[in-house]
Amino acid sequence: MVSLFLGLFGMWLGVHRSRDMSAIFPRLESTNGVGKVYRNGSILVDTSAIIDGRIADLSITGFLEGSLVVPRFVLDELRHIADSSDSLRRARGRRGLEVLGRLRKDDTVPMEVLDVGVGVGEEVDAQLVRLAKGMNSPILTTDYNLNRVAELQGVQVLNVNELANALKSIVLPGEELQVHIVQEGKEAGQGVAYLDDGTMVVVEGGRRYLNAFHEVVVTRVLQTAAGRIIFAQPKS
Questions:
Q1: What is the pLDDT of residues 6-40, one digit of tens each?
Q2: How far apart are CA 33 and CA 116, in angstroms?
Q3: What is the pTM of this model?
Q4: What domains, with CATH codes, occur in the chain?
Q5: What pLDDT digit, counting tens, does each position of 205-217 carry?
Q6: What is the DSSP code string of 17-50?
Q7: Longest pairwise C-alpha distance within the chain
């Protein structure tokens, strides 16, 4: 009788004190109806991040902790893009499928497909944000609009573009660089070069050194929403 009473009391306590139990064990989160338990280390992957392709190289470096979770509706959207009649759109979709294939074969970061779809009349981004809130997981994306919407709803976002900009080399005014001037600038007499990380270098008076290597001196560095731009002058 005592065992039966304690068992029934435990069941009652678990049902009526579920919120308290979640507070005591914050590492365990439900998927809001999906029927699976996730840890906070799971990262939801957006379609744009898969098509971008850098996620595969990023996973190899070991900087991503936890597992990558690809919802089924993201996979369906990717397949729809790969079957598009537009050649450029179709190529982007197929590249995304190839990236998923690479991630499947890579054991560095576990990846799984979450079997959850999109409701009738519901957008993929809205469902992704709702799923991220229910799982208490961040979203990996390159989509600027999704980035802002998710942040407004309190969802953490891992933006691959912001990471790439943060990892670009830092130069200071007065430093000397050797660059390959590859094209003309927007203003008269300007030349444009690029560093190994893709940072644009605008060389005042560099047009005469077009298609040649030349040493330049950094005059100022401008940080924009699109990235960092370096302005320089020829050393000579």
A1: 777 777 666 655 544 444 344 444 434 333 434 45
A2: 10
A3: 0.64
A4: 25-166 (3.40.50.1010), 176-234 (2.40.50.140)
A5: 999 999 999 999 9
A6: THHHHHHHSTT-EE-SSS--EE-TT-EEE-HHHH
A7: 96
